[in-house]
From TrEMBL:
One of its GO terms (molecular function) is aspartic-type endopeptidase activity. GO terms for cellular component: plasma membrane. This is Prepilin peptidase. PANTHER family: PREPILIN LEADER PEPTIDASE_N-METHYLTRANSFERASE-RELATED (PTHR30487:SF0), TYPE 4 PREPILIN-LIKE PROTEINS LEADER PEPTIDE-PROCESSING ENZYME (PTHR30487). Keywords: Membrane, Transmembrane, Transmembrane helix. Belongs to the peptidase A24 family. Coiled coil: none annotated. InterPro entries: Prepilin_IV_endopep_pep (IPR000045), Prepilin_peptidase/N-MTase (IPR050882). GO terms for biological process: signal peptide processing.
Length: 186
């Protein structure tokens, strides 16, 4: 079996089972929570791209612009088509608000002194803004706050188990993606 060492793993981890299991959980969760939402196929598309982004960020500490753009474009175009097809054009301002608020919050955090937030994270947050906006203000709030809790707890566990040092860079994209998924489940 082909193995790959993830940055914080103590032993080689097979490449495919972890992302495959994560994908099954993400897709099943969205299907259960959003099964009657006509935007479900769009959420599944963005989630699929998000899973790839999470793996890349965990391995390389990078969020490739092409994949972030695919998530953003797929989300905006897909949700736009769904809004028009279902006669709910009121979703457009919420999608725009989700994007604008996400971009403003993450851009502000990224330019703070000693911030470890990268501009890939800023772009990812903006790309997920339309989905959070579609789901409403509560989802947007959770989607913006929860990544910091998830990343903080992860960092504390990794520090406590001596898998990282305080100056070790950690990926933030997976926390953004996981928080968005959790916000869409609520």
């Amino acid at each position: 079996m082909d193995a790959h060492r993830l940055p914080m793993s103590p032993a080689p981890v097979p490449r495919w089972p972890v992302p495959a299991l994560a994908g099954a959980v993400v897709f099943a969760g969205l299907a259960v929570a959003r099964g009657d939402d006509p935007a479900l196929p769009v959420f599944l598309l963005v989630a699929a791209i998000g899973l790839v982004l999470a793996v890349v960020d965990l391995i390389c500490l990078r969020l490739p612009d092409l994949l972030v753009a695919a998530a953003a474009g797929g989300g905006v175009l897909g949700l736009g088509v769904v809004a028009l097809a279902t006669g709910t054009p009121a979703r457009f301002p919420m999608m725009a608000a989700g994007t604008a608020v996400s971009l403003a919050v993450y851009l502000t955090l990224a330019v703070l002194p000693r911030s470890r937030l990268g501009f890939g994270d800023v772009k990812l947050a903006a790309a997920l803004g339309p989905a959070l906006g579609w789901a409403g203000w509560s989802a947007l709030g959770w989607g913006l706050a929860l990544p910091h809790v998830l990343a903080g707890v992860t960092a504390l566990v990794l520090l406590a188990t001596h898998r990282v040092r305080p100056d070790t860079p950690l990926p933030f994209g997976p926390a953004i993606l996981c928080a968005t998924w959790l916000a869409l489940l609520a």
